[in-house]
Structure formats: C-alpha cells, structure tokens
Specification:
This protein is an all-alpha fold. Helices cover 77% and strands 0% of the residues. The longest helix has 19 residues. It is elongated, with a radius of gyration of 16 Å. The termini are far apart. The model has no long low-confidence stretch (mean pLDDT 94).
C-alpha cells in the first residue's frame, strides 16, 4: 500500500507543478490522488514533511525566487503569476521563507551579481 500511495501522491505533485499558478484546493489535490482529503493530508505530510498547502506555497515561492532573479517582472506580476492572488500574503509568505521581502531579495541579488563581474 505504501508504494501505491507514493504513486498516487506523485499525481498531486504533478498537479502542483503544472497548476501552481491556478487556485488549487486541497479537495482538488486529494481528488487527483483518488483519496479523501483527510487521508491525502496524512499521506502527503508523511512523504514530504509538509501539509499539501504548505508544499504548494513552498513550490510557488521557489518559482517566485526564480522569476525575481531571471525576469524583470514586477513583484506584483510575479505574485499573481505564481498563484498568489493577495500581494500582502505573498510578501508575508516570502519573508517567512527567505527572511527578506521580495523587493529586497531582488536588490540583494542584483548587487551580488554586479559584484561578481
């Protein structure tokens, strides 16, 4: 059953990677795995050490970091492109994960890359 659950949970990870920019609900992720939301949460946490929604936010923030470094899009554009529909929530989550705001993160990266030249 463990291997079967792992295979089913991979469907949730695939869904997160392909649809992170959309509104993804716990119910939709659980449905993709053909599990009840409660059982899905339990299995997902035991596999990833995060709840499904924590993992989704983590994935969105990781994508936002790449966009901050590799594009000139505004912080607002990046937040929405990564599936955050509330800018202040995005900034709060980003600070919790990275210790600085997205704008400051980008400035620090720019200074660092200029000093590498």
């Amino acid at each position: 059953a463990v291997d079967e659950n792992t295979a089913r949970l991979k469907k949730a990870l695939t869904l997160i990677r392909s649809s992170y920019h959309e509104e993804l609900t716990l119910a939709r992720m659980a449905q993709a795995c053909d599990m009840s939301p409660q059982y899905f949460c339990s299995c997902f946490r035991s596999m990833t050490k995060r709840s499904p929604m924590e993992y989704l936010n983590y994935y969105r923030l990781t994508t936002a970091v790449k966009m901050l470094v590799n594009t000139d899009e505004s912080v607002t554009q990046i937040a929405y492109a990564c599936g955050f529909n509330d800018l202040s929530y995005f900034i709060k989550q980003f600070k919790n994960e990275k210790g600085v705001s997205p704008g400051r993160f980008r400035k620090q990266r720019e200074k660092k890359s200029q000093s590498d030249i």
